[in-house]
Amino acid sequence: MSYSVGQVAGFAGVTVRTLHHYDEIGLLVPSGRSHAGHRRYGDTDLDRLQQILFHRELGFPLDEVAALLDDPEADPRAHLRRQHDLLTARIEKLQKMAAAVEHAMEARTMGVDLTPEEKFEVFGDKDPEAHAEEAERRWGGTEAYAESQRRAARYTKDDWKRMQAEVASWGERYDALMEAGEPATGERAMDMAEEHRLHITRWFYVCSYETHRGLGEMYVADERFKEFYDSMRPGLAEHLREAIAANATRHGG
User: Fold this and answer.
1) Which residues contact 123 (CB under 8 A, 6 or more apart)?
2) Minimal CA–CA distance to 229: which of 174, 165, 153, 187?
3) Could you tell me the sign of the dihedral formed by the alpha carbons of 103, 244, 225, 217, in that order?
4) Three-class DSSP category at 237
5) Rounded CA gap, 252 and 249, in Å?
6) Distance (Å, rounded) from C-alpha 25 to C-alpha 39?
7) SS3 (DSSP) at 41
8) Residue pLDDT, tens place only, 116-167
């Protein structure tokens, strides 16, 4: 049984133009032709195309794919085993990246300037594994951490945008509070600290006053978190830490 170039393109999810190109460079020459001279592909051709697409998916350039498939000493089963190993390694890498993204989103709620839309772009100049390890070291193993991951997994793009808008609004109002000279231990600052705590509780996990105190300390001790809050207004991280502590004391926490 043989198939037309259009049928094969449909089977494989590639374009007819791609199959024509593979023929022209000798990578996949159809084993037959119709009476009118049109390409006809047999089962052996489909097997070869499958191998080509496996290797292309794994990032091999066409010339290397041709060399691999045309090696007379190559064992087809060995090819499949190698592809399986490569795909398994790729899956593991993607799973780790997915975990790193979840951790990064959790860190974002704690003050790191990261949005879901940027979750992969951010890895251009950061090591996602190092970031994931840091997040795991700080929050991993806790019920709060597990709960934040469960909630984050359910959020839509609109949810993330709404959360981000809340953060932006809060930052503008805290900036205005500091501009007005309000002390960190004053009622307005403590109310803003309480709003901050409730934001975390609403979106990710129940943030106790004790936990909130710890976060306030981290916002000053960790340079990245400090940079995020101080980007809203210089000195905001320190001011917020004091406001969080005062608010916790006010509520007996």
Assistant:
1) 97, 100
2) 174
3) negative
4) helix
5) 5
6) 15
7) strand
8) 444 444 333 333 333 334 444 555 455 655 666 677 667 777 787 888 889 8
Split at pLDDT 50, 70, 90, the class of 113 is: very low
Cα 127 from chain centroid?
A: 12
Contact 83, 50 (CB under 8 A): no
Residue 158, exposed/middle/buried by CB under 10 A (0-12, 13-18, 19+)?
exposed
Which letter does DSSP use for residue 235 in this model? T
| CA gap 191, 189 in Å, rounded | 5
Confirm if 144 and 206 have CB atoms less than 8 A apart: yes
pLDDT at 246 over 80: yes
Using left for φ > 0, alpha for ψ between -120 and 50, and beta otherwise, residue 111 falls in left
What are 40's strand-pairing partners?
Answer: 4, 32
Strand partners, 32: 40
Q: From CA 203, how far away is CA 195, in angstroms rounded?
A: 12
Cβ atoms of 132 and 96 within 8 Å: the answer is yes
- Residue pLDDT, tens place only, 53-69: 887 877 677 887 888 78
User: Token match 């190993």: residue?
Assistant: 85
Say if residue 178's pLDDT is above 80.
yes
Which residue is listed with tokens 């001279």? 37
In this structure, what token pair is assigned to residue 71?
Answer: 């090696």
> How far apart (Å, rounded) are the C-alpha atoms in residues 177 and 114?
25
Cα–Cα distances in angstroms (integers) from residue 54 to residues 62, 79, 80, 96, in the given order? 12, 10, 9, 22
Cα(143)–Cα(94) distance, integer angstroms: 25
